Amino acid sequence: MRFKTTNQQFVKMINSNYFPATSRYNTMNYRRCGKSGILLPELSLGLWHNFGDVDTFSNSLQMAHYAFDNGITHFDLANNYGPSVGSAEETFGSIMKKSFRPFRDELLVSTKAGHDMWQGPYGTWNSRKHLISSLNQSLKRMSIDYVDIFYSHRYDSNTPLEETLQTLVDIVKQGKAIYIGISKYPQEAACFAYHYLTQRDVPCLVYQGRYNLFNREPEKDGILQQAYENGAGFIAFSPLAQGLLTNRYLNGIPEDSRIARGGFLKKEALTEEVIKKIKCLNEVAYNRGQTLAEMSLAWLLKDQLVSSVIIGASSVTQIADNLKALENTNFTKEELKQIEVICG
Questions:
Q1: Going by CATH, does the domain composed of 30-246+292-343 fall within 3.30.70.120?
Q2: Do the strands 177-183 and 39-41 form a parallel or antiparallel pair, or are they unpaired?
Q3: Any idea where the domains of the chain sit in the sequence?
Q4: Of 236, 223, 217, which Cα lies nearest the Cα of 193?
Q5: What is the DSSP letter of 158?
Q6: Which residue among 129, 185, 205, 283 is buried most deeply as judged by most CB within 10 Å?
Q7: What is the pLDDT of residues 197-218, one digit of tens each?
Q8: Are 293 and 245 contacting, i.e. CB atoms less than 8 angstroms apart?
Q9: Which of 127, 136, 131, 207 is nearest to 161 (CA)?
């Protein structure tokens, strides 16, 4: 269940940013997160959906166990994950009490604050009051004393950035978080954050952004390169475009899909042009011996600018399928050219 490696293996790997799997963890590789001592699994487990109080706890427990047993040491949460809001952290807290407690030091637990959480003027955005209050609530729900990474979940143009960043610094110095991250910050604000945090000896560990074959903003906006140049890692979320980059929509909209259930993914997103792209990408994946989902995850991990990819899952089977992506993350020049032409 635990990550094991010998001192000799670490001596061989010490100057590398890429840590291959050991025989014990034969399904996972680890990547250094920016200029830090932290190693992230290539796949992290996100608890945005399927870990709320509307879900079956036994299934959530099985998924958490399976992920950890297969080398996924990073569990990504936020204060408002559920549904209902806060319930994903409560579920994780129950898992901690039931089975994860002895392995706390082998886990990397992250949470965030900044989106709508409770009623009133202090239940959202990035004020000092909201961030500190939210983290205190999160720690209580998760039944832990600290988080490994605490994120400012989104940029807030109405709160002075100095107030937000100084709060993050103070949270680390209070021992409630070990590292700091930022998510969905525009480039200019991210630049200010990197320098502010570094000057106060609490460098930003990681930037988390939406990144997939259909959403290339981190490339276009320079966010990927900016994170690298500032010594931060980059974690990609929504790697499958909420299910578009899978085989679920090749032949229409399934009744149990996110679109059919009226979730964040809307029917309008599935245009004829998108369906054509999905089918063409699926053909490339087939020729690689992968599913579309596997290839989409592998594509994100094709170079070292991406430290980890956050997957979501509703079953152990889905996690197992996602892990297969790690078997081939290399692409030929011809394959990459094909993908670029298809994605436009």
A1: no
A2: unpaired
A3: 30-246+292-343
A4: 223
A5: S
A6: 205
A7: 999 999 999 999 999 999 999 9
A8: yes
A9: 127
